[in-house]
Design brief:
The protein is elongated. It has 7 helices and 12 strands. 27% of the residues lie in helices and 16% in strands. Strands 4-12-11-7-8 form a 5-stranded mixed β-sheet, with no helix packed on it. A 3-stranded mixed β-sheet has the order 3-5-10, with no helix packed on it. A two-stranded antiparallel sheet has the order 1-2. Among the domains are: 121 residues, Cytochrome c-like domain (Cytochrome Bc1 Complex, Chain D, domain 2); 106 residues, Sandwich (Immunoglobulin-like), CATH 2.60.40.
Length: 365
């Protein structure tokens, strides 16, 4: 083909060739004849068999290792049957519970102890460490509702001092859902669970335990826990039973046989001995009292805690000993004079039947 100027178009076309001058087509790929032979040589077949057997052994070992790992991990997670404390999951659940209870204790001391007492013994608010209440009344669902709605959920009192704590309430409170769960975990913690916390009386870190006794069984004669904690003190002439919501666990339901029942009386008894005692700020103003032996005497008890129930209970030897006599529970602000029967000479403890942290020593001589 030419492009020279001045030539006619037909002179610039390719020069035609004869068919005989075109090269015949050739095969695209060529190989020696040995490459096209059919079948395997004995050496090649033996090599393939050896490689296949090795691959099967590798696969078998891999499957065996994976199966052993799954079995070992299963028992590591869930524990070996018959071997105590061998489950990783159980240990992790227990550790998380301890963490939640520890955080809940800190929340309780910072926000709740002022009204309910550092040990849940009650004060401005109701008792929380009573075993009967923890068994049937203070359930997780109930506590969740109280913390979300506030104190009005308990007794229907719109003027209740207890505010809304949950940020899901209306208006929202200061605690989020995790704080609420931790607080409930602490309130419901069993006595078998131990955790580290700061002792409010000493300010030192110590080992504490939960309030709820998993083995607690109410006495057949115990009364049901009232829906409203104030109902336990509606009648000033009778102390609450061991299952009453306002009394601590194990509190007697009546004065011991042979002792005089407490009733208001004019100041001045048969012997003229009258002891003065006042409750204020969920504490007695005196921790030591002295009374004559072998003769009746009186205790003029003034409750200066408005709306909070108190009484006086006399115990043998110490405030945790056997009950010798107990006075009627009444709410403040009020005053009652108890008639106490004659007591043998000795050392006694006195306490509030509603708030066991209120204690003192009575010397009879």
């Amino acid at each position: 083909m030419t492009d020279q100027p001045g030539q006619r178009p037909e002179e610039r076309l390719p020069v035609p060739r004869e068919p005989s001058e075109v090269a015949p087509p050739t095969e695209r790929f060529t190989a020696p004849l040995t490459a096209h032979s059919v079948g395997l040589s004995p050496e090649r077949a033996a090599k393939i068999v050896t490689q296949s057997a090795s691959a099967r052994w590798v696969a078998f070992l891999a499957v065996t290792i994976v199966a052993l790992f799954v079995i070992v991990y299963y028992f590591y997670d869930l524990g070996v049957p018959g071997v105590a404390d061998s489950s990783r999951l159980d240990k992790e659940v227990a550790a998380q519970q301890v963490t939640a209870v520890t955080e809940g204790y800190s929340l309780f001391e910072a926000n709740c102890a002022r009204c309910h007492g550092a040990q849940g013994q009650g004060g401005i608010g109701p008792v929380l460490n009573d075993q009967a209440k923890l068994l049937t009344h203070l359930t997780p669902g109930y506590l969740q509702s109280v913390l979300t709605v506030g104190g009005r959920y308990v007794c229907g009192d719109a003027n209740s001092l207890m505010p809304i704590w949950s940020d899901q309430g209306s208006p929202p409170g200061p605690l989020n859902y995790r704080n609420i769960q931790e607080l409930i975990a602490f309130l419901r913690a069993p006595s078998t669970l131990q955790f580290q916390g700061v002792d409010p009386t000493t300010g030192l870190t110590t080992t504490l335990k939960g309030w709820r006794d998993p083995a607690f069984v109410p006495a057949p004669s115990s009364t049901p826990v009232p829906n409203c904690w104030k109902d336990a003190f509606a009648s000033p002439s009778a102390a609450p039973s061991g299952a009453a919501s306002g009394a601590p666990s194990g509190a007697p339901s009546a004065a011991p046989s042979g002792s005089a029942a407490a009733s208001p009386a004019a100041s001045g008894g048969a012997t003229g001995t009258v002891l003065e005692l006042t409750a204020s700020g969920t504490a007695f103003d005196k921790t030591d009292l002295t009374a004559p032996a072998g003769v009746p005497f009186q205790i003029t008890f003034t409750n200066n805690d408005a709306g909070i129930p108190h009484n006086v209970v006399i115990h043998k030897d110490s405030p945790t000993g056997a009950v010798v006599w107990q006075g009627a529970i009444f709410s403040g602000v009020a005053t009652q004079t108890y008639d106490v029967p004659a007591l043998p000479a000795g050392t006694y403890g006195f306490a509030c039947g509603v708030h066991p942290n209120m204690t003192g020593t009575l010397t009879v001589k």
